Amino acid sequence: MRTSYKHVIKNSEVFKQRLLSWAQQFDDVLWLDSNSYIDKYTTYDAILAVDAFTSLQTDDVNAFERLDDYQQTTKDWIFGYLTYDLKNSVEDLESHNYDGLEFPELYFFQPKKLVFIKGNEVEFQYLKMVDDQIEDDINNIKNCHCEERSDVAISYNPIKIKLRIHKDDYFEKVNKMLAHIHRGDIYEANFCQEFYAENSAINPLETYNRLNQISKPPFATFFKTFDKYLMSASPERYIKKIGNKVISQPIKGTAKRSEEKAEDQKLAKDLGNDPKERSENIMIVDLVRNDLSYTATKGSVKVEELCKVYSFLQVHQMISTITSIISNDTHPVEVLKTTFPMGSMTGAPKISAMKIIEDLEETKRGLYSGTVGYFSPDGDFDFNVIIRSIIYNETQKYISYSVGSAITAMSNPLKEYEECLIKAKAMREVLEC
After folding, report:
1. How far is residue 92's CA from residue 53's CA, in Å, rounded to a whole number?
2. Per the residue annotation, which of 105, 194, 206, 236 is the catalytic one?
3. Cβ pair 94, 88 in contact under 8 A
4. By the 8 A CB rule, do 391 and 367 touch?
């Protein structure tokens, strides 16, 4: 079905910049970059998918069933996203909050052209109908007269960022959530707020390059479908399938970085020992274990790593790894459906938390706290969590980024607000430069 051609490159970073610039000619683009971050479950350094041959776009009605049919019928690489509000497809829930971005709830496409990068080797996988273009495309990529520096200045006027929830309102809403916790309605919930700009324009590729440069996350994403863009510096994997093994790696627990080495090490150590942060993480681990159990073979759900602190350019994060084994007859999409939305962006108990979140938040989450990734032809998949991301509707000239934190019984509203500002720092710097 696809023609494969392997090619050796001298400088992968230069090639990646040229490749992504070359890709901008297409209406559908999905770029996934690990930024050379290696863990035991890393498969590729980077993947580019462009030029849709077939696609699936839908609202939340029977969304997972339609995706399952598309994935099984196509039996090829498909790339795309699921918005957070597909929660309405799996539970009796609704979304009525303001939506300035207007993304479809689900979008996947089968690319005509695929490029995989691993070390200094590049593999081109093209559908037969376009495989005669491989050689020309390689030459065009090599000779792409793009701006190769990834710290280029954005050539637009500075963006004026507005808050959807102002500070006093934020405190009031967190206190309402704490009242739900003290009443026993929930144990924990992820409460998010939107920062946005109206009547504003950005260069999406330059914006992504700058965001990626200052964050270097393991799940960076540039996504484009016509006039809609995602520029993500996500550090978090939602879920991955390799053969019969399923891996979920929720993040709960955040601390700032310091340029002073001793202080930075102390911040990381304090995060690892913080009872509030650990309780957040452990509650979500329990939730993920429960979600994975719906498709797991008996006794196969395991916690491989609990509350381990990892350091990224902008923040320290506490990450756990939970795995399970599924049977051969379990459809890949069923694993997504029974675990979606991801525990780290909802709360416990999950359905109660989602109802309270919907009531207290002011913005429809949409793509934010959803997921983007791919299915391989044999049914393996890998999906991130859409956080630390700038989302842009070019036609509406609407720019948005959201941040959140986990509210538990031990939460202090001021500290939660400060955590949100730490998480928002990279996006604000990129847009206000």
Report:
1. 34
2. 236
3. yes
4. yes
Which residues, 6 or more positions from 286, have their beta carbon under 8 angstroms from its beta carbon? 348
Residue tagged 């049914």 (tokens): 379
Alpha carbon distance 13, 3 (integer Å): 25
Question: Which residue blocks in 110-195 are alpha helix, DSSP H?
Answer: 134-142, 167-183
For tokens 């036609």, name the residue.
Answer: 395
Burial class from Cβ neighbours inside 10 Å (0-12, 13-18, 19+) for residue 21 reads middle
Residue 236 annotated in active site: yes
**Bridge partners, residue 173, by sequence:** none
The residue type at 362:
E
4 C-beta neighbours (distance < 10 Å), count = 12
What percentage of the chain reaches a pLDDT higher than 70?
97
**Cα separation, 241 vs 284, whole angstroms:** 20
User: How far apart are alpha carbons 408 and 373 in whole angstroms?
Assistant: 30
Measured in degrees and rounded to the nearest 5, phi and psi for residue 288 equal -65, -40
Our CA angle for 252, 222, 334, nearest 5°, is: 60
Tokens of 229: 């863009």
- Is residue 188 within 8 A of residue 347, CB to CB? The reply is yes
What lies within 8 Å, CB to CB, of 198 at 6+ separation is 100, 162, 397, 398
Q: What is the per-residue pLDDT across 249-288, written as a single tens digit (0 to 9) for each?
A: 999 999 999 999 999 999 999 999 999 999 999 999 999 9
Residue ranges with strand state E in 130-218: 162-163, 188-197
Say what the pLDDT of residue 433 is.
73
Q: Is the dihedral of CA 137, 142, 146, 148 positive or negative?
A: positive
Judged by phi (left if over 0) then psi (alpha if -120 to 50, else beta), residue 422 lies in alpha
| CB-CB contact of 318 with 251 (8 Å) | yes
Q: Which of 112, 228, 240, 252 is catalytic?
A: 252
Handedness of CA 276, 282, 285, 291 (dihedral sign): negative
* 16 contacts 36 by C-beta, under 8 angstroms: no
> What percentage of the chain carries pLDDT values higher than 90?
93
Q: Is-catalytic flag, 260?
A: no
Residues 6+ apart with CB under 8 A from 361: 97, 165, 191, 192, 193
Summary mean pLDDT of the chain: 95
Q: Between helices 350-360 and 167-183, what is the axis angle to 10°?
A: 150
d(CA 198, CA 344): 29
Contact in structure between 194 and 423 (CB atoms under 8 Å): no
